[in-house]
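Q: What would this complex look like in 3D?
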Amino acid sequence: MILRTLRLRSFRAHDETTVELRPKVNLLHGANGVGKTNVLEAIHYVCLTKSFTATNDRYVVRQDAPYFEVEGLFEGVRSTETRVRLVYVPSEGKKVFVNGAPLDRLTEIVGMLPVVVFSPEDHALTAEGPSERRRFLNNILSQARPVYMDDLMKYRRARKQRNEVLRQYKKRPSPPPDALIEPWTEKIIMIGSRVIHRRNQFLHTFREYLVDAYERIDAVAEEPTIEYDTIDAFEESTTESEIQKAFRSEVERKREHEHQRGTTLVGPQRDELVFRLDDLEVRRYGSQGQHRTFAMALKLAQYLYLTDRLDTQPILLLDDAFGKLDARRTDVFLELLMSDVIGQSLITATRRSPFAKTIDFDRPTHGSMHVTRVDGAARVTPEQNRGDDASTEDASGTATTVPESPVQEQQT
Amino acid sequence: MQFTSESVEALVEQFTKLPTIGRKTAQRLVNFVLKMPREEVEEIARALIAVKDQVQRCSTCFVVADRDPCPICSSEKRDRSTICVVEESSDLLAIERTGEYRGLYHVLGGVISPLDGVGPDDLRIRELARRVDPSFADSEAANVSAADAREAAESGEAGPPEVGDEPHAGDGAPAPDDADGADGAGEDEEAEVEEVILAVNPNVEGDTTAYYISQLLEPMGVPVTRIARGLPIGGDLEYADEATLSRALEGRGAV
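A: Here is my prediction, written as structure tokens for the whole assembly.
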């Protein structure tokens, strides 16, 4: 799947921007805060209807603009050309149009345009709380299996309802009567077990992808593993009804505890993933470098898994992903981007030169763009391929930014 | 944005109490009302009051109707052995429009949703249980366990079935002071209920309500079914969303 053209209107720093993209590596370079990441974010909106950073849609609308709009022209999705447009109006919410026709439900688009993001926030995957890891899990499974997301949303709703019953009885001497709580317990067991079943099966498959991904970026012979910590230990062959049984007895066991706390204490909302390198638990004992490599391997494995599962190569978004990598790993990764393993990718970086050494921007499959601020709005300027990249950077940079840059850069 | 006229502002406020009406729409409506002839405005006002004064709920099925029992419950032509359970009166109308269903109805008045403060006792579920099994103990409320309710219902089964099913008004339903009409409906209900069809919406709350009802009715030995969910007629498989399609696969039937 290839994104040909992206159009942004009133999106963050962008007033009106059109970006033409190449089928392989696309580099967006420029100073901090000019609007490079916004371009990746816009692609994420078109593909998954939201940003990859935790943000309120309201603040994505450019200041003083009434709404924002993102449009992508894709090739090789279901038919030859697919035009996806997402419009957000603060008072009305988001709407997605595929080839002009509005979607009944936003979530219908998820999985159609697969996308994988590498960003500095990936650090949280291995270093922070379990919710980050569940988010990662949900992101892959939602893109790979549309029904998963439907189950997940229904589960959340049922759990909220059940929590409300528990909350009402929290301060009372006895737990809620069966007639009130039991239908909800049954519901969370049914849907929750389906969610756990899918996660369990997925994680058993995903292990191989992770080993493969880790080997590609790190030559060290450590073996990465993921342990799925849920209501019980399950084999790959564990059936949904066995999970239901375990779920049921766990709810039974925690009944008094749930009454005291007034909330649901059993279920996939408490799942955790434990990452290890051989026997070492990465979260507690991993070095900075191991954290970074593990997070990258997870994302690369996500890419490889989605490629197999969806039979198309996702778009790879690399937001400032090379900033902290050493030279060797940067090279390994850039080689990977140019190989058949990865399809189309977009990279943001402050400087062009480190990439120009490895990536031949003279080839029509790659492209590089300079992002600047002009009159307070982001501008993306495609660069003509020239042999001498050092002078290119200066030439294209000075031409557009010099009058603005002192003021603009102070702002950001 | 305050209006200069107080009565205009008051009407705007009243209109915004209605669902889906925001301030802007309310202002538009008020402007329209100001241009209407007095007689037409009176007609609207009268119709609003009449709806509250004259419309009542059927004391058997709780549908909104002009008389009690409602035309469906009092009709000789309806099959008294099946009861179709719906959330609201408007759902009943939708099923009636199909012309395919000839049984009776039962309007629950909503679905179980703790977040909206609606529990089983706020719906007309006990009334349904009594229609299915007149000996269903009236005292059973949701604050005793469902297991107890089941036991009570089972032990009650041995007792003689009361023919004159006393209709009990649910919350918010007018009390059935018209005893003759209610008795008439009771006499017609000699036929035993052979099937209860749950036609609630296919969402989390609808599912849970259906589950609750099926558990409650299970000991009475009456088959409880639920309407199928899946693809719309005339729909294209290709355009169905994955969640609907996968549920349709789950609920597939023999050709």
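A: To summarize the key features: Chain B has a mean pLDDT of 80. The domain at 64-228 of chain B is CATH 3.40.1360.10 (Dna Topoisomerase Vi A Subunit; Chain: A, domain 2).
Q: Very helpful, thank you.
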